[in-house]
Amino acid sequence: MLYASPQSAAEGTDARAGLGPSSYPNPAPSAASVFHGELPLTSLQVRQEKERELRENDIYWTKRMKALEANLKQTNQVLEKEYNAAVTDVKKRFETSTVRQQLPPCQDLKAKVIECYRANPSETLRCANEVQQFTDCVNLHRIQLLQQRTTAENQKQ
């Protein structure tokens, strides 16, 4: 048998029950525990502390949300102002060009070209004259549009 101390060896008793890991005797816990430093918190105090922390957290997030909403409002105002400026700019640029509800030019010549291609599917060079007339008509129409735009721009200035 192993004895924990010379005294227990002399007495023949095993004193392991009161020994710690380093073979020193552990004192028996006293009935009245002594706390050094802060007193233990009661459940009421813990609850009050947590409620205070929650209130502080609510205040923080309320302020944060208000700041974000103000920033969003300011951003929306800037974007709306820029959008309105862009709309005004587009209206100024295109106020002279009226939407015309008319057919594209040279429809009769286009029909002749299509008719010629259908009549001569394997000999498309036979339609060269019709294609040339259609191309000339389209180019003439483009020139007229460019002249109209140039005249309108010169009148603005």
UniProtKB/TrEMBL annotation:
Residues 1-32 are annotated as: Disordered. Signal peptide: none annotated. Residues 1-10 have a biased composition (Polar residues). It comes from the Eukaryota. InterPro entries: Cys_alpha_HP_mot_SF, MICOS_subunit_Mic19. GO terms for cellular component: MICOS complex. One of its GO terms (biological process) is inner mitochondrial membrane organization. Residues 21-32 have a biased composition (Low complexity). PANTHER family: COILED-COIL-HELIX-COILED-COIL-HELIX DOMAIN CONTAINING 6, MICOS COMPLEX SUBUNIT MIC19. This is Head-elevated expression protein. It comes from Anopheles darlingi (Mosquito). The lineage of its organism: Eukaryota, Metazoa, Ecdysozoa, Arthropoda, Hexapoda.
